[in-house]
Automatic annotation (TrEMBL):
<comment type="function">
    <text>Part of ribonuclease P, a protein complex that generates mature tRNA molecules by cleaving their 5'-ends.</text>
</comment>
<dbReference type="GO" id="GO:0005737">
    <property type="term" value="C:cytoplasm"/>
</dbReference>
<dbReference type="GO" id="GO:0004526">
    <property type="term" value="F:ribonuclease P activity"/>
</dbReference>
<dbReference type="InterPro" id="IPR016432">
    <property type="entry name" value="RNP4"/>
</dbReference>
<keyword id="KW-0479">Metal-binding</keyword>
<protein>
    <recommendedName>
        <fullName>Ribonuclease P protein component 4</fullName>
        <ecNumber>3.1.26.5</ecNumber>
    </recommendedName>
</protein>
<comment type="subunit">
    <text>Consists of a catalytic RNA component and at least 4-5 protein subunits.</text>
</comment>
<feature type="binding site">
    <location>
        <position position="65"/>
    </location>
    <ligand>
        <name>Zn(2+)</name>
    </ligand>
</feature>
<dbReference type="GO" id="GO:0030677">
    <property type="term" value="C:ribonuclease P complex"/>
</dbReference>
<keyword id="KW-0819">tRNA processing</keyword>
<keyword id="KW-0963">Cytoplasm</keyword>
<comment type="similarity">
    <text>Belongs to the eukaryotic/archaeal RNase P protein component 4 family.</text>
</comment>
<dbReference type="Pfam" id="PF04032">
    <property type="entry name" value="Rpr2"/>
</dbReference>
<dbReference type="GO" id="GO:0008270">
    <property type="term" value="F:zinc ion binding"/>
</dbReference>
<dbReference type="GO" id="GO:0001682">
    <property type="term" value="P:tRNA 5'-leader removal"/>
</dbReference>
<keyword id="KW-0255">Endonuclease</keyword>
<keyword id="KW-0378">Hydrolase</keyword>
Amino acid sequence: MGYSKRKIKKIKEIALERIEILMNLAEEAYRKGQLERMRRYIELSRRIAMKARVRFPKKWKRRICKKCLTILIYGVNCTVRTVSDKSCPHVAIKCLNCGNVIKIPMVREKKLKRRLKRMASTK
């Protein structure tokens, strides 16, 4: 027997709330210098997301180093660069703790640029 759709929806809502709370606590723990506690909060929030089969919120997903499980605070423990390759431009976020690089593709910007180019050529 499975859960009803209403019950599944409620479980996912609760999971997202708890993820948000844990990530805020992790950010506070980092500011206080409690790195082990921060890692534990991040680990718990990721487990909750997996157990409830919920996508991890994008705003937090991009601020976590998957290699060393630390919160990335731009300019403090990570660097942000835009890499404009012809084939795939992207934003590169480098963790200064472990050296891991997270690449976020800039596909929307590229599509918008193409669309504007087409519109200009048709007029």
